[in-house]
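Troubleshooting log. The previous structure file for this entry was overwritten by mistake, so regenerating from the original sequence record. Sequence copied from the archived sheet and checked twice against the printout by T.R.
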Amino acid sequence: MTRSPLTRLSTTLDLIPHAFRTVLLVLASAACCVALRWADRNWSLPPGLDFLALIPIALAFRVGARTAGFLSVPVVAVILTVGSGAGLDALGGHLVSLGLVGFLLDSLGRSLRKARHRAVSDHLTGVYNRRGGEERAALAIETCRRNGERAVLVMVDCDGFKGINDELGHETGDLALRSVARALRSACGPRDLVWRHGGDEFAVLLCGAELGDARFWSGRVESALAKGARGLGVRLTVSTGTALLRDSQDSLSSLMARADNNLYHRRRLLRTEGRRTPASV
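Regenerated output below.
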């Protein structure tokens, strides 16, 4: 799937902690403005190029870093004023003009982010859809690999979902899927990802985790499912298959294939033994 550079950058910045991302973007705005002033002094740039200082501000609003965008406005205004040798009147003018531009960029950025959110979210469960989840999971796996961390990919399949739909109706089936999605998210940490892979199947990426962590995570999911099932009047259980990120050859697709295969073999084994497929790893 081909993605624009801005989309790739936005997805990457989503993985950076908010405070660090804010500082990074404000510094980028200041650096861009200082570079413009320096270039103008040394090479006498044509007039009107000050608008280039808006690029980092526009980028901040585009990727959803509103705090960084609004903090960059006074920083850029001061640098432009000092660099041009103007007085306080010019500073006020820069603040007003950059503030108005920032407001417009913020409005545009929010509209774009809402459209982007709808494009990568599953409308029924509220988690990422397959496209959004796999985009972010591929980046998260690369981050784990660079940091020398492990990760666990978990494929999750709802047990008996067809029976819930057939016996209790699709509305109850939808409520069951929402309950499963909430249980999966509640058991995850801030770096972990949950997405709906399709139908009654979900995928979860546990970043910085080992298989032992995945077993502990599975226990939390089972507890959350038990609580959610009481409100629905149905029994909710899931089956899982896992795959550990082992080396540089592992990709998201290879992890998903291994986890799916483990899920299939686990279910077949438990059915052969005549046992329920539990929510365990």
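The first helix runs from residue 5 to 14. Archived copy saved in two places this time.
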